[in-house]
Write a structure and sequence with these properties.
The chain has 98 residues and is of the alpha+beta class. 48% of the residues lie in helices and 13% in strands. Helix 1 packs across helix 2 (24-41). It is globular and about 45 Å long.
Length: 98
């Protein structure tokens, strides 16, 4: 069984159920990222918000990222992009956890 969800429904679900996982801007960026993936691959993604929370993280900036990952290993955005999926929006970004 699959459920179709629009951007507002997606963002509302996170606001109500997991408000600390992604910021309001991050929720919209994550939705945009997932829609872009669907458009690029022709595959539909099943809405599994818990899996999304486990698989992706949002960071406001590199300083926040470096609290979890070694700055020497990932000194800039390019090195992060070489290591994992990276989606930027403003100064913030979402990565696939690794």
């Amino acid at each position: 069984m699959k459920m179709t969800i629009n951007e507002n429904g997606f963002c509302d679900w996170f606001q109500l159920n997991r408000p600390n996982d992604f910021s309001p801007r991050g929720r919209r960026a994550l939705f945009e990222m997932l829609e872009s993936y669907e458009d690029d691959t022709g595959e539909q993604i099943e809405f599994d918000p818990i899996a999304l929370c486990c698989e992706y993280s949002e960071y406001e900036n590199l300083d926040e990222f470096w609290l979890e990952y070694d700055k020497n290993d990932y000194p800039d955005k390019g090195s992060i992009m070489d290591a994992t999926f990276y989606w930027a929006f403003g100064d913030s970004f979402i990565i696939q956890k690794f």
